[in-house]
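Data deposition worksheet. Section B asks for the primary sequence of the deposited chain exactly as it was used as input, without tags or linkers unless they were present during the calculation. Section C holds the resulting structure in token form. Section D is free text for depositor observations; keep each observation to a single sentence. Incomplete worksheets are returned to the depositor.
Section A, Depositor: J.P.
Section B:
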Amino acid sequence: MKEVALIILAYLIGSIPTSVWISKKFFGIDIRDYGSGNAGATNTYRTLGSKWGTIVMVFDVIKGIVAASLYLLIPHYVADEWDRTNLMVGLGLSAVVGHIFPVWAGFKGGKGVATLLGMAVAIQPIVAVCCIGVFLVVLLLTRFVSLSSILASVSFAVFILFIFNEKEPLYRVFAVAVALMVLLTHQKNINRILKGTENKVPILRHRDRRRRRNAE
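Section C:
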């Protein structure tokens, strides 16, 4: 029963609609009515600016970390690594579901990538750092947040299954599920990338302006 209560609590934590509350509190709008209509950090970045997008990203990552760490409330899981990992996966997934379908915001949330990252940080920090590295490299090269998220998620499965060779079966299944889920939730982004209509984040603009000036 304690585990069920923690899973419900993890869902409620994941349901905290950071971007929706911030957009309503400080801008008098619902972020889901603008841009991509998504209640995530990327749409917040594009609609409200880098400052608020970063704040939303940080809070959404923290949701995943806190939710996956709820196992600390049950002493048995602190000492048993096998059971702990299984419970952390369950707690983290519950938080991700909450982020995607938030009870506090009409069950219309974000895509859950930041919360997934927070969950990975709590369970396997080294793998999480590697995935962050993949995300940043792809973002700097392409400036597509969507493509960066997709490749980071796929790399998460690669790291777990092959490079770090994680032995826990549930965690291996989870890694594959994460990659598939992110691919499914980013179908529209993939189509826009293929068509050349996907939006890019405004980073390294000074580099582009300098290149244009040099070309002239």
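Section D:
Residues 189 and 195 are 10 Å apart (CA to CA).
The chain has two domains: 1-112, 124-216.
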